[in-house]
Amino acid sequence: MLRQSSAEFGKIAQVGESAFGINVTNSRLVIFGGGFPLQNGARMVGGIGVSGGSVAEDEEVAKVVLDALAGL
């Protein structure tokens, strides 16, 4: 949705930052790690989101999937 990882966007959605509160305006928006944009070259084609572990674990799994898709 935002063409950046959810962790990256989460940084600017914190108190005192430029996008503070945006996560309560859209029920589809998540501001913690685990979500990444899915691109084909410069073209945005979707996203991937992993949840269920710690943020670090979710991001690790998502990155493995992104790497696997990049090889297709």
Q: Topology, please?
A:
Blueprint: H1 6-12, E1 35-40, E2 43-49, H2 55-70
Antiparallel strand pairs: 1-2
By CATH, the topology is Beta-Lactamase
Overall strand count: 2
Poorly predicted parts = none
Instruction: Give the assembly state of these chains.
Output: single chain
Q: Nearest-angstrom radius of gyration?
A: 13 Å
Q: Note the overall shape.
A: globular
Q: What's the number of helices?
A: 2
Average predicted confidence as pLDDT: 91
- The computed structural class is alpha+beta
Strand order of the largest sheet: 1-2
Q: How many domain modules? A: 1
What is the CATH class designation? Alpha Beta
Fraction in beta strands: 15-25%
CATH architecture: 2-Layer Sandwich
Distance between the termini: 23 Å
What share of the residues lie within helices? 25-40%
* Major sheet attributes: 2 strands, antiparallel
Q: What is the name of the CATH superfamily?
A: Haem-degrading domain
Short description:
With 72 residues, this protein is an alpha+beta fold.
Describe this structure as you would to a colleague.
The chain has 2 helices and 2 strands. It has a single domain, classed as Beta-Lactamase (2-Layer Sandwich). The longest helix is centred in the last third of the chain and has 16 residues. With 72 residues, the protein is an alpha+beta fold. The mean pLDDT is 91. Helix content is 32%, strand content 18%. Strand 1 and strand 2 form a beta hairpin. It has a two-stranded antiparallel ribbon.
